[in-house]
């Protein structure tokens, strides 16, 4: 098993990265870009594992079986830091901590590798703090930044990084990976790969989680129920409720686990009161949980809006008779009826309305207000 096995459809990228590992002197800064589902974070971890791999032959590194490869992929290697923010944006203090870490010499491996997920969440001021370390890093440090596209990172940063561009793999490649790695049946894997639009992480979640499939199905069917203003308002409330429930469930579980771990570390019983001198630590946990819940809700809403976009994408495919496969082919009868009752230009306008709602939510507009405005625009036109 190789560290590259979880990167279906990325043969050219894998070849380039393996060449960089074999040369033994990789660039000091890398920018991995690709749309959601392209596997840019997986590629960054695989590259880090290959750099630290213990095989003597440089051309074969990235075996996936030595201690270095296993610990990098598990997130426990002492010389590989995987950084991801749970806030809306990275804070300056987060980046300063990274810069300090970059100065340390590796303890067990040839390189100290720092992977920064969602580098596009850095503000210009925060990115400028990172700039000098990217320009003049220690000789043993390799930075790997991940972002959706090069345009999402300041030009001063991307001009100092070696670029690696990934594309979303095709559906067959994702389905094959799910069968091979996760033991799914061919039918389960094909359905998950199709409705996730080849997003590996979402495909895996949909294939394994019946509740996630149910939420997605309810979301995709919402346009079929919108006929009036009251329908639109009710559908908006339901969509926000579905997304909030999904985000809250995962966030609450993690917050409780963190609070329990902190109590254990401080020697406090589950039901004992928190001493005054330790309340600040629990307060910090609560604040982090609130920020995490807010971002989780926004991310869940965004996923729901992408799922809803696939409904109108399929409608447009039918209206234009393009012959392209439907994402939601199990709703074929409903999609044909909807397509026959409207015009392509109206469908495009609805897709634009969903895109506008995503932009508004990203700009911190109250989610319910943004979704209500969108749902009103999704009403059938006369």
Question: Which helices and strands appear, and what pairs or packs with what?
Answer:
Elements (H helix, E strand, L loop, with lengths): L10 H13 L5 E5 L6 H13 L14 H8 L5 E4 L8 H12 L8 E5 L7 H12 L5 E7 L7 H4 L3 E4 L5 H12 L3 H10 L4 H9 L1 H12 L7 H38 L12 H42 L11 H9 L3 H19 L4 H11 L5
Parallel strand pairs: 1-4, 1-5, 2-3, 3-4
Helix pairs in contact: 1-2, 2-3, 4-5, 7-8, 8-9, 9-10, 10-12, 11-12, 11-15, 12-13, 12-14, 14-15
Summarize the biggest pleated sheet. Answer: 5 strands, parallel
Portion in helices = 55-70%
Distance between the termini: 58 Å
Strand content: 5-15%
**Order of secondary-structure elements:** HEHHEHEHEHEHHHHHHHHH
Overall 3D geometry?
Answer: globular
Number of helices: 15
- Overall mean confidence score, pLDDT: 87
> How many whole angstroms does the radius of gyration measure?
23 Å
Major beta sheet, strand line-up: 2-3-4-1-5
What structural category arises from helix and sheet content?
alpha/beta
Low-confidence blocks of residues: none
Number of strands: 5
Domain AAA+ ATPase: 26-227
Protein name: DNA polymerase III subunit delta
Pfam families: DNA_pol3_delta2
InterPro entries: AAA+_ATPase, DNA_pol_HolB, DNA_Rep/Repair_Clamp_Loader, P-loop_NTPase
């Amino acid at each position: 098993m190789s560290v590259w096995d979880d990167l279906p459809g990325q043969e050219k990228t894998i070849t380039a990265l393996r060449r960089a590992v074999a040369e033994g002197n990789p660039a000091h800064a890398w920018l991995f870009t690709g749309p959601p589902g392209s596997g840019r974070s997986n590629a960054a971890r695989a590259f880090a594992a290959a750099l630290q791999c213990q095989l003597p032959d440089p051309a074969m590194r990235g075996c996936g079986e030595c201690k270095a490869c296993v610990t990098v992929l598990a997130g426990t290697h002492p010389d590989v830091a995987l950084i991801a923010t749970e806030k809306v944006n990275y804070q300056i203090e987060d980046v300063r901590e990274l810069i300090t870490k970059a100065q340390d010499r590796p303890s067990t491996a040839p390189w100290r590798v720092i992977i920064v997920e969602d580098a596009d969440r850095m503000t210009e001021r925060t990115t400028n703090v990172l700039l000098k370390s990217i320009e003049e890093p220690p000789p043993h440090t390799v930075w790997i930044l991940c972002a959706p596209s090069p345009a999402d990172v300041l030009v001063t940063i991307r001009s100092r990084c070696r670029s690696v561009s990934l594309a979303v793999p095709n559906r067959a490649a994702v389905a094959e990976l799910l069968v091979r790695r996760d033991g799914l049946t061919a039918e389960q894997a094909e359905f998950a790969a199709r409705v996730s639009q080849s997003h590996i992480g979402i495909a895996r979640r949909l294939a394994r989680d019946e509740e996630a499939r149910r939420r997605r199905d309810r979301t995709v069917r919402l346009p079929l129920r919108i006929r009036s203003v009251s329908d639109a308002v009710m559908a908006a409330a339901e969509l926000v409720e579905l997304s909030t429930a999904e985000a809250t469930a995962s966030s609450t579980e993690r917050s409780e686990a963190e609070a329990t771990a902190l109590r254990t570390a401080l020697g406090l019983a589950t039901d004992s009161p928190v001493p005054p001198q330790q309340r600040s630590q629990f307060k910090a946990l609560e604040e982090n949980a609130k920020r995490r819940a807010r971002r989780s809700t926004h991310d869940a809403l965004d996923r729901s809006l992408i799922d809803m976009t696939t409904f109108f994408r399929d409608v447009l495919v039918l209206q234009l008779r393009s012959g392209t496969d439907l994402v939601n082919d199990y709703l074929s009868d409903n999609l044909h009826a909807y397509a026959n009752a409207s015009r392509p230009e109206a469908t495009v306008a609805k897709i634009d309305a969903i895109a506008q709602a995503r932009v508004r939510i990203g700009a911190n507009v109250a989610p319910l207000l943004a979704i209500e405005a969108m749902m009103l625009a999704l009403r059938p036109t006369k």
